[in-house]
Amino acid sequence: MTGVVRSRLFWPVLVLVLLLIGNLFFKPDFFAVRIVDGHVYGSLVDIVRFGAPLALVALGMTLVIATGGIDLSVGSVVSIAGAVACLHISRQTDQNALSGVLVAVAMALGVSLLFGAWNGVMVSRIGVQPIIATLILMVAGRGIAQLIMDGQIITINSSPYKWIGAGWLFTLPASVLIAAVVIGVTALIMRRSALGLLLESVGGNAEASRLVGIRSRSLVLLVYAVSGLCAGLAGLMISSNVSSADGNNAGLWIELDAILAVVIGGTALTGGRFSIGGTVIGALVIQTLTTTIYTTGVPPETTLVFKAAVVTVVCLLQSPAFREKVFRRRRGPRSTPPTSASEPTNVRVPA
Amino acid sequence: MTTLTTPTGVRLAKVFTGRQRYVPVLATATVLVLMWIGASLYFPAFGDLQVLLNVFKDNAFLLVLAVGMTFVILSGGIDLSVGSVLALSTMLCAWLVETHGWSPGVVIPLVMVIGALGGSGMGAIIHYFEVPPFIATLAGMFLARGLCYVISTDAISITHPFFTDTANTMVPLGDYRIDPSVVLSLIVVAIAFVTLHYTRFGRNVYAIGGSEQSALLMGLPVAATKVAVYAVSGLCAASAGVLYAFYTSAGYSNTGIGMELDAIAAVVIGGTLLTGGSGFVLGTVLGVLVFGVIQTITNFADLLSWWTRIVVGALLLLFIVLQRVIGARKT
């Protein structure tokens, strides 16, 4: 029992389950899933469907945060990827041609990868702090997206492209399957090879890792490139879902949601440890929170206030200084010196 | 090797020793002057002094924001909430004055107190609970923006005579005229300048930015200073919001999205080191001017406004690389 409680995924999962159950009070058929025309529908399906782009962005963000960095530019990369793909498709004579869509997708992903690698070069080679390096692309990126689209919102009508964000495969939403495959493959590579361990080592101490022979600079470059790629894929999903590219609003504030997902998932912002499963659950928590706010009839404008409260609480709970100052005092004389702060119930100090 | 032993090399090295901290500011001033001359040659109307005064007018609120941000960055932190706090103050002004009929004389001080209190709250979380500044102020950003939406998602126009009169008043200055908001923002700059360079608090800010550990060992009041720095930033953001209410005569919940980035860019372009401990508030004024001149050139050249953002991004990049080069030489 204590093993389950002490698992890193326990708290995020608990929050998710409580949020889901809480929804039952407002919508009794919340857990109902029905199949219409061979497609599954239901509130739960909506949550994973709309959460798929966020989960992808958060996946890239997890790896970046694992190395002790942060990527603020993901929202801009989302809008750039959508802009590149929609621009290419809009220039095709037959927008439904699969080849044109494939080229557009490849171009968008290539551009996203390049922007991610650019961030990586800034951080690993030039030595700029990650917040600032990615801030530059965050500021300039939306401008670049506008430039690509000449300030317009490009609307397209392409059924193969529409499939990415709003299509179905094996009765499941295609976007969820794409996200699941990407997340699954990344998790396999990270945890079945030494790569994940190396990333955690770089996040723990980049200089020490370099001295023991880990190519920390190349690894840092790699994670930013992957983060760019994930954001690009999410950008394709978002623009495909609405069949248009909007440089100003596509992916607006998704970087904040992604960071929030990573933090809720138990990955510390200081780097050195990461949990991909936790991030996925974190992304689902945020999407559920957003959905809950809609279903409860609370004005959707208050979403941000809720998210702010969640960020604050989660960050405070993660902060060792906060836990020490608040919880140790409450336990008072019962506790021994803080050698094992996480298992206080087993400690019995003789009176 | 050989260059160092030549007399010119020695002389040059001597000139730069101890003055390296002025290099970024000088670079910014050079960029500003070159842009100004170039634009004036290209667009004859650009050289008019009134254009420069308009740059100040259009960016008075940004100047006040950036001054607050300078304090935070000098202390080695960052404040991402300023854009949202500006929006919240503007909203509060519009909402309390228009919808609830409160007097501006009550509302404006109230808004500034809220800004300062919010800032100190974030500072306290950052210092006492060791939450990274980036995350604590991110939460503040969400909160302030969320409260804007809670107040109203529609724009509230301000028709109170105090606001409209102030917006229409001009202070004559010879043949030219300037806005009261410009005067106010310059007063803020002057106060900040004196505070940073001639008071104990200012020296503490620099010391903490240089090395928090050393400042602590020296017995400086690290906790109070850090909380105060974020309070200053919150106060500046709230004041900038009031100026913005004068400027637009309306409260709208989407104002100031991304403005924290403009403020950070102005501070960095103005030569303040992002790692803290080195920089000048007057450099920040230059940074805001660079931003404003780029904006004005974009207007004059009839380019679309996103070029401003791209050029600001490129300049930010340039100056950060410059900081790295100078920083690398120092060690």
Automatic annotation (TrEMBL), chain A:
Residues 328-351 are annotated as: Disordered. It comes from the Bacteria. GO terms for molecular function: transmembrane transporter activity. It is found in: Cell membrane. It comes from Catenuloplanes atrovinosus. CDD domains: TM_PBP1_transp_AraH_like. This is Simple sugar transport system permease protein. It is a multi-pass membrane protein. GO terms for cellular component: plasma membrane. Keywords: Cell membrane, Membrane, Sugar transport, Transmembrane, Transmembrane helix, Transport. The chain crosses the membrane at residues 9-27, 47-65, 97-118, 130-148, 168-190, 219-238, 250-269, 276-298, 304-322. Pfam families: BPD_transp_2 (PF02653). InterPro entries: ABC_transp_permease.
Automatic annotation (TrEMBL), chain B:
It holds the Pfam family BPD_transp_2. It comes from Catenuloplanes atrovinosus. InterPro entries: ABC_transp_permease. Keywords: Cell membrane, Membrane, Sugar transport, Transmembrane, Transmembrane helix, Transport. One of its GO terms (cellular component) is plasma membrane. It comes from the Bacteria. It is a multi-pass membrane protein. This is Simple sugar transport system permease protein. One of its GO terms (molecular function) is transmembrane transporter activity. CDD domains: TM_PBP1_transp_AraH_like. It is found in: Cell membrane. The chain crosses the membrane at residues 21-43, 63-94, 106-129, 135-157, 178-198, 227-247, 267-294, 306-326.
